[in-house]
């Protein structure tokens, strides 16, 4: 049986996302959608509010909390440039989308589409804390961590994570016992926090098939990549699997003038050997 063609992508964003984590893969899908116009791909940005989301540590408009930057950036004593910045605007919120999903109101013809693929980028925002007026702290991505297990039963095809997006997914427990890779630079701390994942830190990208999910897991493929630019590799591999084969991905990479090395699933990344192998 040929793999099902995923159409609807739900992309989660949070303050402090790494722009290339999502921009690289999304531009690959931009090219694919131009080359395959009959494949009616859709993209929905989702976050905890509808306020524009900054790539730097800037609280939302009228937010009652601030960021604990000293802990996140000890080498600069919390000093962070926030003037060179990019914003993305969500299409919906976690609460709105989940309510529609649970009510059976997601529709291919409606504003809120069914979710074929949940895409989770990384970035320093995945590890920074929010400081509330009473002094308490919560994870900047806690709303996303809470949302993922609730929406997981509604995901039709796959979850894709880039960089520390794997860390976010791991915190939900949905990666327990499954293979995944993650940002090589932050590997040791992430493994320490999520020891039940079968981490493969040498890999450029990993596809954990639905059959690898345990009794408490989600029966969809989980595609994960190493840091930042590796998101383009896992996306090209995903396209190879779902949208017409290797030649399709090669043509997309060619149009982007991306020097795709076609590293195989779970194979050792030469970048790992160069910088991290002991």
How would you characterize the overall build of this protein?
By secondary structure, this protein is an alpha/beta fold. The protein has one domain (8-275): Rossmann fold (3-Layer(aba) Sandwich). The protein has 9 helices and 14 strands. It has helices spanning 19-35, 69-72, 94-102, 142-151, 165-171, 187-193, 230-242, 246-256, 270-275; strands at 8-12, 42-47, 53-54, 66-67, 87-88, 92-93, 117-120, 129-131, 137-139, 158-161, 179-180, 198-199, 205-208, 221-225. The strands form 4 sheets. Strands 6-2-1-7-10-14-13 form a 7-stranded mixed sheet, sandwiched between helices. β11, α6 (187-193) and β12 (198-199) form a beta-alpha-beta unit. α3 runs parallel beside α4 and α7 runs antiparallel to α8 (246-256). The longest helix is centred in the first third of the chain and has 17 residues, at 19-35. It starts with 7 loop residues before the first strand and ends with a helix. The relative contact order is 0.15. The model has no long low-confidence stretch (mean pLDDT 96). It comes from Exophiala mesophila. This is DJ-1/PfpI domain-containing protein.
Defining key terms:
278 residues; 9 helices; INH-QAR; seven-stranded mixed beta sheet; single chain; Rossmann fold; DJ-1/PfpI domain-containing protein; three-stranded antiparallel beta sheet; alpha/beta; 30% helix; Class_I_gatase-like
Query: Which descriptor suits the 3D outline?
Result: globular
Please mark out the parts with pLDDT under 50 across 5 or more consecutive residues, or reply none: none
Number of DSSP E strands? 14
Order of helices and strands: EHEEEHEEHEEEHEHEHEEEHHH
Strand count, sense and barrel status of the largest sheet are: 7 strands, mixed
Helix percentage range: 25-40%
CATH topology: Rossmann fold
Our Rg estimate from Cα atoms comes to 18 Å
- The top level CATH class name: Alpha Beta
CATH architecture: 3-Layer(aba) Sandwich
């Amino acid at each position: 049986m040929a793999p099902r063609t995923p159409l609807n992508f739900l992309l989660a964003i949070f303050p402090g996302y790494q722009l290339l984590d999502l921009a690289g893969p999304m531009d690959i899908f931009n090219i694919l959608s131009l080359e395959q116009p009959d494949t009616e791909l859709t993209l929905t940005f989702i976050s905890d509010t509808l306020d524009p989301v900054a790539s730097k540590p800037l609280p939302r408009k009228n937010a009652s909390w601030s960021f604990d930057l000293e802990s996140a950036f000890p080498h600069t004593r919390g000093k962070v440039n926030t003037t060179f910045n990019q914003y993305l605007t969500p299409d919906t919120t976690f609460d709105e989308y989940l309510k529609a999903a649970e009510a059976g109101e997601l529709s291919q013809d409606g504003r809120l589409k069914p979710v074929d693929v949940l895409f989770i980028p990384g970035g320093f925002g995945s590890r920074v804390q929010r400081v509330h007026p009473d002094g308490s702290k919560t994870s900047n991505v806690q709303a996303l961590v809470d949302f993922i297990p609730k929406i997981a039963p509604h995901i039709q095809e796959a979850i894709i994570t880039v960089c520390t997006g794997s860390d976010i997914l791991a915190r939900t427990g949905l990666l327990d016992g499954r293979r995944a890779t993650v940002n090589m630079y932050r590997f040791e701390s992430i493994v320490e926090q999520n020891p039940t994942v079968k981490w493969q830190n040498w890999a450029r990208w990993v596809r954990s098939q639905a059959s690898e999910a345990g009794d408490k897991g989600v029966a969809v493929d989980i595609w994960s990549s190493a840091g930042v630019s590796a998101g383009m590799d896992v996306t090209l591999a995903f396209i190879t699997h779902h949208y017409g084969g290797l030649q399709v991905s090669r043509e997309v990479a060619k149009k982007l003038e991306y020097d795709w090395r076609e590293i195989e699933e779970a194979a050792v990344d030469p970048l790992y050997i160069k910088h991290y192998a002991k």
